[in-house]
Write a structure and sequence with these properties.
Blueprint (H helix, E strand, L loop, with lengths): L6 H20 L10 H21 L9 H12 L4 H8 L3 H9 L6 H11 L3 H7 L1
């Protein structure tokens, strides 16, 4: 599929991504930096969804913190961590991490996998708000 043009197509693709994440998680195939059929398909479908959202859903940047960013911050608080510690834990430089936390940079598939594996953040939360 080259492009999503209807909400029905978008909803089907979103459901498929959720199925893939569940199945891949059960099989242990969503580890950080994994390259396999699951991560490739999830990445491809997520790109289609993001393009559809940008073109048709007219989603404005959130002024309120997303539940995903709030979950990351709660993890830091619970573990006595600062943002630079989080960047180190998640394998990105402080500047990139700051951009992610402020919503100026999108979350990559490999970063999303590290959120799941290193911080235990729910995959559905990552999928919905990344």
């Amino acid at each position: 599929m080259e492009k999503l043009i209807t909400r029905e197509q978008y909803d089907k693709v979103k459901a498929r991504v959720e199925e893939l994440i569940t199945e891949a998680t059960q099989k242990g195939m969503l580890e950080p930096d994994s390259e396999n059929e699951y991560t490739r398909e999830i990445g491809d479908l997520s790109k289609l969804m993001a393009d559809y959202e940008d073109e048709y859903l007219n989603i404005l940047p959130l002024r309120k913190k997303s539940p995903l960013i709030a979950s990351i911050e709660e993890y830091f608080y619970a573990h006595g961590m600062k943002q630079k510690d989080g960047a180190r834990l998640l394998g990105v430089n402080e500047s990139q991490f700051s951009q992610i936390m402020s919503g100026r940079r999108r979350i990559s598939m490999s970063f999303a996998k590290r959120l799941r594996s290193k911080m235990g953040i729910d995959a559905n939360l990552i999928l919905e708000y990344a």
